[in-house]
Write a structure and sequence with these properties.
It is a single chain. It is built from eleven helices and no strands. It is an all-alpha fold. Helix 5 runs antiparallel to helix 10 and helix 5 packs parallel to helix 11. The longest helix is centred in the last third of the chain and has 59 residues. The protein is rod-shaped and about 95 Å long.
Length: about 300
């Protein structure tokens, strides 16, 4: 029995000795091991912490000057001085073009009405003296056809006062001088009716290029602003580009009507020139007929 107890004690000691290495290999948690556990909590807190708020107000403030919407007036006010000068010049040219349109429409309307009345009265004349009386009437003062009739009859009258036989031997030379007098009046008719045409032609041909100059200058300043501000934000340069493009728009606004008006008035001038050519032939025929009759 005593031996049995000794054997049991030895077996228990052997079991304890066998289990002691495993216990030695499992170290107890130390301060260093607890440190990562302690730091995980702040890391977790940092993971759930809100992301830093991006300040989006700065880009918005760059375009704050145009927050109410970009209008032609605001673009003009924000434009550079050179672009403003271009815009003002083109707007003035456009205003003058429209004013010229109104003036010349009234002028041509009055001219045609007065010409119609003159032709009706002139064709009722029976003698060269009657033709001269109608042509020199105050009612037709300044009318080109009346001036042609006045010049032709004046030449016949001067030939008579010189003692020439305008109804006989000197009839051909008198008619030739009358024709020359009519041609002299017609020579000044084109320049008389084409007043303002040169201005319309200049605006129509140069307006787009002047506007393009303002656009190029404005866009150049916009790109310089990009470099100086060191930003590629489109909102910061879009207003400047829009202001520059407005110059081209105004140039087209001034040029297109000017070209239309120029072509329209050229047609009116050509039509009146044809009418004056027909009247010149009618006038000389009437004078020749009266001379043949001895009037």
């Amino acid at each position: 029995m005593q031996k049995t107890n000794i054997l049991l004690a030895l077996a228990g000691a052997a079991v304890l000795m066998a289990s002691s290495p495993a216990l030695a290999q499992t170290p107890a948690p130390t301060a260093d091991a607890a440190a990562p556990a302690a730091t995980t909590a702040p890391a977790a807190d940092a993971a759930v912490a809100p992301a830093p708020v991006v300040d989006e107000a700065a880009p918005a403030e760059e375009g704050a000057g145009h927050s109410g919407g970009i209008t032609p007036v605001s673009m003009f006010m924000e434009a550079t001085p050179v672009v403003k000068v271009v815009m003002i010049g083109l707007l003035l040219a456009s205003v003058f073009s429209w004013a010229l349109l109104i003036i010349k429409l009234l002028e041509y309307g009055s001219l045609n009405r007065k010409t119609d009345r003159f032709l009706e009265e002139f064709r009722g004349a029976r003698t060269i003296a009657d033709m001269r009386k109608v042509a020199t009437s105050d009612d037709y003062d300044g009318n080109p056809l009346a001036d042609m009739a006045a010049a032709a009859t004046e030449e016949i009258e001067l030939s008579r006062q010189a003692g020439l036989s305008v109804t006989g031997d000197h009839q051909d030379s008198a008619l030739f001088r009358a024709q020359q007098a009519v041609s002299a009046v017609q020579a000044g008719l084109a320049s008389r009716l084409s007043g303002g045409q040169q201005f319309l032609a200049s605006v129509g041909s140069t307006g787009p290029f002047v506007g393009l100059f303002g656009t190029v200058y404005g866009i150049m300043n916009s790109f310089i602003g990009i470099v100086e501000s060191n930003t590629t934000n489109l909102a910061s340069v879009a207003p400047g580009i829009a202001e520059a493009l407005l110059a081209t728009g105004i140039g087209l606004f001034a040029a297109i009507p000017a070209v239309v008006f120029y072509n329209y008035f050229n047609t009116r001038i050509s039509a009146y020139g044809t009418r004056s050519d027909g009247f010149a032939a009618e006038l000389l025929n009437s004078i020749s007929r009266q001379l043949d009759k001895g009037a």
